[in-house]
Design a protein that fits this description.
single chain; alpha/beta; Nucleotidyltransferase, domain 5; 2 domains; 5-stranded mixed β-sheet
Length: 159
C-alpha cells in the first residue's frame, strides 16, 4: 500500500493543495496566502505555507506534466537575436503544430552545439520525437535536427 504524501501533517490535504495552488497559480506571496486562508478561518503561518510549497510544489507540477497532452508531430524551431546589457544573446524557441510552446532557451552562442543542446533538452522534457521539424535555412540548425532526431524529416520555412 502506498503511503500518503500528506501523512503527519496537521491540516487536511485540500487545505494544503489550496495554499500551494494559490501561491503558484496567482503568484501571491506567502503572507498573502496566509491572509486568504485566515479570511476563511484557517490559522496557518506563512512559514508553513513556504514549507508546503517547497515540499508539495514539485509533486503537483509532476502530476500536471503527466496529464498534459502530448505535443503534435510537427515542431517549429527558431532563434531570435536579443541584446541584453549590450551583449548579443540568442533566444531559442520550439512550438508544436497546435501552437503550444514546448521550450524556450536563452543562450550566448548560435552554433550547432547550441542547437543540439536545445533539441536534446526538448526531447528529454517532452519524451516524444516529432515526425517533421521546420527550421529556417540556417545550416547548423538543420544539422542539429539530423543529429538529435534522425528519424524526423526537416522542412525549411521562411517564418
Amino acid at each position: 500500500m502506498q503511503r500518503s504524501i500528506y501523512r503527519r501533517h496537521r491540516f487536511h490535504p485540500s487545505i494544503i493543495q489550496t495554499a500551494v495552488q494559490l501561491y503558484y497559480r496567482y503568484t501571491l506571496s506567502y503572507r498573502d496566502v496566509e491572509e486568504i486562508l485566515a479570511e476563511r478561518g484557517i490559522d496557518v503561518s506563512y512559514e508553513t505555507v513556504r514549507r508546503w510549497c517547497y515540499k508539495f510544489g514539485p509533486v503537483f507540477a509532476h502530476r500536471i506534466r503527466k496529464r498534459r497532452e502530448r505535443p503534435g508531430s510537427k515542431w517549429r524551431i527558431d532563434e531570435v537575436f536579443q541584446k541584453i546589457d549590450g551583449r548579443q544573446f540568442y533566444l531559442w524557441r520550439a512550438v508544436d503544430s497546435e501552437g503550444e510552446v514546448l521550450d524556450v532557451s536563452l543562450q550566448p552562442r548560435r552554433d550547432t552545439a547550441a542547437a543540439v543542446t536545445f533539441l536534446r533538452r526538448i526531447v528529454s522534457r517532452v519524451g516524444v520525437f516529432p515526425g517533421v521539424v521546420v527550421t529556417d535555412r540556417w545550416r547548423p540548425s538543420m544539422m542539429a535536427v539530423g543529429h538529435v532526431i534522425p528519424g524526423a524529416s526537416n522542412e525549411v520555412g521562411k517564418r
